[in-house]
Amino acid sequence: MKPLMSAAEIAEKVKGLAYKREESKLETGSSIQAGLESLINEERSKLPIAGFGDAITSAVESHQVIHISGETGCGKTTQVPQFLLDYMWGRGEACKILSTQPRRISATSVSERISYERGESIGETVGYKALLLNFLKHVCVMRFIFVKSMSFNVKLLLVSHCLLTT
């Protein structure tokens, strides 16, 4: 598979996101921004799946297909894509994640939640496509697609990780 971004482009993207986060802290007041980030990280760390990030990325590295099951609300849908993205970018490797969603509202709400957790706007790193709603840009590396929308021009050859949600 041809990498979607070179190591230099990944490094530039990570540096740009870090710069944007620092810039946002200055605009909104560093104590407010730091408090918000702390609250988000605290919420994420309380999820049952939080302690399994390394095990999940290791399993993905070792196997073509893995099955992750857990109770509703344990963080499978919001955290696993972030584990994978952070892991791949941490290694300086290109990554493009496609996550199917069974409902249109799931595609929109999950992508908005992950964008919020990452301190980004929808369409920067995370986007979605659900019928006529399309917040996918070329730069989006994490895409949430309503299952019925998959019949529309989805190029799976360009995807590094595919997450199927039922």
Could you please describe the fold and organization of this structure?
The protein is an alpha/beta fold. It has a single domain (7-164), classed as Rossmann fold. The chain is 48% helix and 13% strand. It contains 5 helices and 5 strands; from the N terminus they run H-H-H-H-E-H-E-E-E-E. It has helices spanning 7-28, 30-46, 53-62, 76-90, 104-118; strands at 97-101, 126-130, 133-134, 142-146, 161-164. A 5-stranded mixed β-sheet has the order 3-2-4-1-5, covered by helices on one side. Strand 2 and strand 3 form a beta hairpin. Helix 1 (7-28) crosses helix 2, helix 3 (53-62) crosses helix 4 and helix 4 crosses helix 5 (104-118). The longest helix is centred in the N-terminal third of the chain and has 22 residues, at 7-28. The model has no long low-confidence stretch (mean pLDDT 81).
Brief account:
The chain is of the alpha/beta class and 166 residues long. It is built from five helices and five strands, in the order H-H-H-H-E-H-E-E-E-E. The mean pLDDT is 81.
